[in-house]
Amino acid sequence: MPWYKKLHWQIIIGLVLGLIWGLVSTQAGLNRFTSDFIRPFGTIFVNLLQLIAIPLVLASLVVGVTKLNDITKLSRMGGKTIGIYLVTTMIAITIGLISVNLIKPGNALPEETRMELLESYQDNVTDRQAAAEQTMQRGPLEPIVNIVPQNVISSMSSNANMLQVVFIAILLGIALVQIDPGKSAQLVSFFDAFNDVIIKIVDYIMLMAPIGVFALLAAVIIDLAGDDLGRAFELLRALGWYSIAVLLGLLVHMHLVYFMLFKIFSTMKLRNFLRGIRPAILLGFSTSSSAATLPVTMERVEKNLGVEEEVSSFVLPVGATINMDGTSLYQAVAAVFIAQAVGMDLSIAQQLTIVLTATLASIGAAGVPGAGIIMLVIVLNAVQVPVEGIALILGVDRILDMCRTAVNITGDAAVAVAVASTEGKLADGRFDD
Fold first, then answer.
1. Best exposed site among 59, 91, 101, 200 by fewest CB in 10 Å?
2. Sign of the torsion formed by the C-alpha atoms of 94, 97, 99 and 101
3. Mean pLDDT, the chain, as a whole number?
């Protein structure tokens, strides 16, 4: 197959062309045209991915549970999944703290720039703080309570309720295993066929991927730059060291932690893993949504990495909801950066508080764009850093959100490989591009 027909190259070409068009649009005064006639194709692409996320999780997880035929395997797999997710999240936060303490980006921010940023984004901070206050008012067991839905239809009405869908699917799968096989066979066959149909729809949607990512990145550029491209470059330069601290931490985590994860739990090489999962990573980067990318992540993990369906259909939906390695690392860097910028020195105890708070906050962060900022408010309140300091980072948050979402998705897939390997459910992937 020629290189230009491979999906990941088509996505990369779409990203590059989207970047170029966004820059041209800003300079030529075409932002209104881009917003009215190009952005909608990105929105349609993301909507299509979100459309099939819940049906895919429901069908594949029911089929996966019925194939296990042993409830103890399911509980063992669940314990491994959540345990590895929590450990990698805490390591990510620690890496973020090391990065920001070594680089000290807050000390390099000029006073004039700091005051300008605080004034420019103050209105956005108020909205995020109100959303975070609603989250903090929940009881300590509220996340567990929210897993059990009151209504099947309402739980499937939003991708933010993915854990509820996982609960329903597991409950249905267990019940099918427990009843007479003669009665359950038809329903299991239905879900199996339904799952194949959804996978085929994923293939159709991915035909639109290059156009979708082109439109998404063009929209990001015009949102960032507006009508003044020079101001965007000034903003990036002012927050350059902060961005470097985040990106450095993400790169170290992706290559070091996942390399060690495969060394301990699997024989898969990190290079082969990244090669097999790259279309999902690129889509996560362009959409900034773990939930929207979930159908592609599941398909690539099963097809390219050899993870059996009964593992991927459980590990990945749970990961898209509670495993936020990239987001947690970013929260650690952002909290310390804001503290440095306002002249606060965080003690070791306060930085350990960031580790604990960011880990717990990541469990409640929805896999949608911008959720990390809301969780950051909780982290800042925990260490008495002024919440208003969020205004300092909002200017570059959209770009960093794309990067940390790519790491979130990579982490979900890496844990799926590790769990599958320990369960003897990891076959040889074909790495079909």
1. 200
2. negative
3. 87
